[in-house]
Amino acid sequence: MTFFILRRLFQSVVLLAVVSLLVFLAVFAIGNPVDILINFDATPEEITRIKRQMGFHLPLWQQYFVFIGSALQGDFGNSFINGAPALKLVVERLPATLELAIAALLVSVVAGIPLGLVAGLRPRKPSSQAIMAGSILGFSSPSFWVALVLILVFGVQLGWLPTGGRGETVDVLGVQLSFLTADGLAHMVLPTITFALYPTALAIRLTRAGTREIVLLDFVRFARAKGLSEKRVIFVHVLKNILVPIVTVMGVQLGILISYAVVTETIFAWPGMGKLIIDSIYLVDRPVMVAFLMFAVFIFTLINLIVDITYSFLDPRIRISELR
C-alpha cells in the first residue's frame, strides 16, 4: 500500500509539472494585462516601468522558471486587478464551489443509484423505461439551458426560489457556509439541480448496466436459490459488486463539478471559483487564471488517488499490484 501511494504521488508530481508548463504557455501567451492596468495616456516610460515591476520584461522561459520557483512556495503572484495573492482568491472561493459540488454529488448518488437499480431489476416495466428516458434527457440537456429554464419557471413565474447569489451564510471556523441557513439552502436549490442533472443520469446508466450484468451471474442465482430475501440479494450481492465503477466515475465527476462550475456559477451569480475564473479571463488577470488552473489539476490528481485507494476496500479481488 505504501509503495502504491508513493508511486501515485510521484506520478501526480510529474503530471503537475507537465501541466504547469502547458498552463503557463497557454495563459501567458494571450493578451497583455499591462494595457488594462495603465491609463490610456500613459507614457512609454510608465509602460516600461510597469512591465519591469511585473516581470514581463524577461524572456518567456525566464518568466516560467520564476513562476515555478514561486509556485513551489504556494505563491502564484498577486492579482493584477485587486492586488491580493492569486491563490488566496481561489481558496476563498472554494467553499462556495464545494457546497454546490458536494450537494450535487449527494443528489446524484441518492437519486441515481436507486433509480438505476429499479431500471436494472425490472427493465421491461414502464417505470424503468421512463427512468431511462429521463437519463437521456439529463445527458442531452445543456446546463445553461437547464439553468435558464429553472430560473424562468421556479424563480420568475412561480417565485418559489431565488435566482441568484449565495444568500445568508454562517461563519464556521472562518469559512462562510450557506447550507446551514434556510435562506442559503433556498439559494442552493436551483444551481444544485443544474449541477446534479448530468451526474445523476450517469449514475442511473452505470447502475443499470452493472445490475443487468450482475443479476445474470451464478452467485446471484445461487443466493436466491438459498432462499435469501430479495433485499439482501440486492444490497449485499448486487449493489456491492457494482460500486467500483460507480465510485470511479462519481469521483471523477466530483473533480469536474469543482473545477468546471463556470457556466452554472455565472448564470446563478454564485460566488465560487467558476465565476472567479470567468471574471479573470475577461480582465486578463493571469495570476488568478494560473492559480485556478493549477489548483484544479491538484484537485483532480488528489481525487484520483483517493479513488484508486478506495478500490481495494470496496472489492477485495482488486489488489494494489493490479493498479500499478
The assigned structural class equals mainly alpha
Number of strands: 2
Biggest sheet strand line-up:
1-2
Shape: globular
Q: Please, what is the average pLDDT? A: 80
Given as residue ranges, the uncertain stretches (5+ residues, pLDDT < 50) are 320-324
The number of helical elements comes to 14
Q: Helix fraction?
A: over 70%
Quick overview:
The chain has 324 residues and is mainly alpha-helical. The chain has helices at 2-28, 34-37, 44-54, 60-71, 86-121, 126-140, 143-157, 182-214, 218-225, 230-259, 262-267, 273-283, 286-314, 320-323; strands at residues 170-172, 175-177. Strand 1 (170-172) and strand 2 form a beta hairpin.
Task: Please describe what this structure looks like.
Helices cover 74% and strands 2% of the residues. The protein has helices at residues 2-28, 34-37, 44-54, 60-71, 86-121, 126-140, 143-157, 182-214, 218-225, 230-259, 262-267, 273-283, 286-314, 320-323; strands spanning 170-172, 175-177. It has a two-stranded antiparallel ribbon. α9 crosses α10. Residues 320-324 have low confidence and may be disordered.
Keywords:
two-stranded antiparallel sheet, 14 helices, mainly alpha, 324 residues, disordered C terminus, globular
Helices and strands in order:
Blueprint: H1 2-28, H2 34-37, H3 44-54, H4 60-71, H5 86-121, H6 126-140, H7 143-157, E1 170-172, E2 175-177, H8 182-214, H9 218-225, H10 230-259, H11 262-267, H12 273-283, H13 286-314, H14 320-323
Antiparallel strand pairs: 1-2
Helix pairs in contact: 1-4, 1-13, 5-6, 5-8, 5-10, 5-13, 6-8, 7-8, 8-10, 9-10, 10-13, 12-13
